[in-house]
Amino acid sequence: MSFGKGYIQVYTGNGKGKTTAGIGLAIRALGAGKKVLFLQFMKDRVYSEHKLLPQVSPAITVQTLGKPFFIAREGDLDQESLEKWQDKVVIFPPGNPPPEYVALLQDGLQRARAALVGGEYDLVVLDEINVAMYYDLIPVAAVLEILREKADGVEVVLTGRNAPPEIIECADLVTEMREVKHYYNQGVNARKGIES
């Protein structure tokens, strides 16, 4: 059972809610009897959705491609952030991301390709793949290639801030989450069940 023509959706921007929107769409698809793959790039299985989504329906598969460590490109973090993160982040020169991170996410890209081309799933959510492309962990050209190859009836969602212009151009729907105000700026950390 497919959606008919499957579209390419992008949820991006610096505001909260991109992954949450992907989860909501996955739940809606499950309610309509669809089969869903929720593939998370650059995340560990520590988020609250990991406890629930697999129990919601046997028609959803949730896979994570763990985060071996936090990364940032040289120049991405200001001095205050560098002091805060100290040795908890790996800083890399532009165009030269950590090879072990690249290898991990290449495996995820192959999983994504199999899901999009194979037609086993009606909806494929590629959570945080935009961030993986932003950090050069996955080439934009490789993602564009699998989007071109996807089966007609497969709907795909790409989430994460900093969606590349090429991805935005090829998408059928783009939603930008814009931060207007956030309690993070008042020192509030991620809260279980809300941000994690």
Describe this protein's structure.
Strands 3-2-6-7-1-8 form a 6-stranded parallel beta sheet, sandwiched between helices. The chain is of the alpha/beta class and 196 residues long. It has a single domain (8-67, 95-186), classed as 3-Layer(aba) Sandwich (Rossmann fold), CATH 3.40.50. It has 7 helices and 8 strands, in the order βαβαββαβαβααβαβ. The protein has helices at 18-31, 49-56, 79-85, 99-118, 129-134, 140-149, 165-170; strands spanning 8-12, 36-41, 60-65, 70-73, 89-92, 123-127, 155-159, 173-176. It starts with 7 loop residues before the first strand and ends in a 20-residue tail after the last strand. Helix 4 runs parallel beside helix 6.
Brief synopsis:
With 196 residues, the protein is an alpha/beta fold. 36% of the residues lie in helices and 20% in strands.
How far is it from the N-terminal to the C-terminal residue, by CA?
A: 32 Å
Largest beta sheet: strand ordering: 3-2-6-7-1-8
Rg from Cα: 17 Å
Mean pLDDT: 87
Taken as a percent bin, the fraction of beta residues is: 15-25%
Class by helix and strand content?
alpha/beta
* CATH superfamily membership: P-loop containing nucleotide triphosphate hydrolases
User: What is the CATH level 1 assignment?
Assistant: Alpha Beta
CATH topology: Rossmann fold
Count of distinct strands:
8
CATH architectural group: 3-Layer(aba) Sandwich
Give me the strand/helix succession: EHEHEEHEHEHHEHE
Give the CA-based shape: globular
Number of domains: 1
Largest sheet entry: 6 strands, parallel
> Helix tally?
7
Model regions low in confidence, pLDDT < 50 over at least 5 residues: none
Percent helix, as a range, is 25-40%
